[in-house]
Amino acid sequence: MFRQLKNIDTAFRQVRLFCLAVIICCLLICCFTIYKSLNLVQSMQSKVYILSYGKALEALAADGRDNVAVELRDHVKTFHRLFFTLDPDEKSNQQNITRALYLADGSAKKIYDDLSESGYYAGIISGNINQTIAIDSVSVDLSTDPFRFRCYATQNIIRTTSTVTRSLVTQGELRKVSRSDNNPHGFLIARWNILENKDIKIVNH
Q: What CA–CA distance (Å, rounded) separates 42 from 60?
């Protein structure tokens, strides 16, 4: 009889241990499922779906601060391309410069006025000159506000008889303004000045 009671007690302990193990496994599975579900919800919340021509296209939503450096550099590049790309066409040049001046303050307007008074733009038109610019790099200091930048570029001035390659280095500051159609990045170049603009190569045709 005592042996039978002992066997029952042992069996009860084994069943209890088995039940505890099952409960612990269920709790672990539940915790893991909840964790994965929360991760899935967070990842889904960071996605944006755009409906285009009946098709759902996935786009990722990002914090605007992650793209500040990219937007700053693109703003600087866009301004320099508009300001320094010139053709022997007064209307085209004026359109580009007008668009460029929306991206900068009076410091850029002053440089434009000085170039105009010196006959620079008139010389471009009368000499049938094309001027292009290639942006080599733009460095931006994000530790300051307004953000300081320096732009390194190469100009090509194409005349009938020669092509002049010039190095161009400018610097300035970028401050935040409201976004608009004329200023989509919402930055304004301030205290802009030209540090270097010298010939580095002349190729005669």
A: 12
How far apart (Å, rounded) are the C-alpha atoms in residues 27 and 33?
10
The answer, yes or no, to whether residue 197 has pLDDT greater than 50, is: yes
> Minimal CA–CA distance to 129: which of 137, 114, 119?
119
Which residues have a Cβ under 8 Å from the Cβ of 86 and sit 6 or more positions away? Answer: 93, 96, 121, 124, 129, 130, 131
pLDDT tens for 10-54 read: 766 777 888 888 889 888 898 888 888 887 777 666 666 666 565
Q: Which domains does the chain have, with CATH numbers?
A: 2-60 (no CATH), 65-204 (3.10.450.230)
Residue of 186, 139, 191, 131 lying closest to 158 (CA atoms):
131
Question: Can you give the pLDDT at residue 2?
Answer: 46
- Cα gap 181→72, rounded to integer Å: 17
Alpha-carbon distance of 178 to 49, in angstroms, equals: 27
Q: Is 157 helix (H, G, I), strand (E, B) or coil?
A: strand
What CA–CA distance (Å, rounded) separates 194 from 170? 4
Token pair of 176 as six digits: 């935040």
pLDDT tens figures, 108-130: 999 999 999 999 999 999 999 99
